[in-house]
Amino acid sequence: MDKPFTLERLFDGGGTCSNWLHSGRWRGLEFVGGMLLVAGALTRLVSLGLAITMIGAIFLAHIEAGFFLPDGYEFALTFLATAAMLMLTGAGRLSVDGVIARRSGASTGM
User: Fold this and answer.
1) Is the pTM of this model over 0.85?
2) Residue ranges per structural domain of the chain
3) What single-letter DSSP state applies at residue 73?
4) Exposed e or buried b for every residue in 65-95, given b needs 16+ CB within 10 A?
5) For residues 54 and 62, what is the distance between their CA atoms, to the nearest angstrom?
6) Helices assigned H by DSSP within the chain
7) Whole-angstrom distance, CA of residue 90 vs CA of residue 110
């Protein structure tokens, strides 16, 4: 019989998150999403996904180490704040989203 799901099962002996937490989906979101953010494409959608990822990183990996680096949640909280700002404001006029919005007559939020 398999052990019940607990937070302890998410972590291996080295203190890093297991493959379940850092599956290909999360790595893909962070890599491809980062590239999309650089281009300014799908900014609000990607920022939502990254914000959810950072909330998970804070509460599943960093919260017990306190606020400050090297193991604390301050860096993940900075990414969370940045993602939240991008969700609220959008990418801006010079982004791919901005060009598409101007062509369609919609507002980019800026």
Assistant:
1) no
2) 26-104
3) S
4) eeeeeeebbebbbebbeebeebbeebbeeeb
5) 10
6) 24-39, 43-57, 74-89, 96-104
7) 7
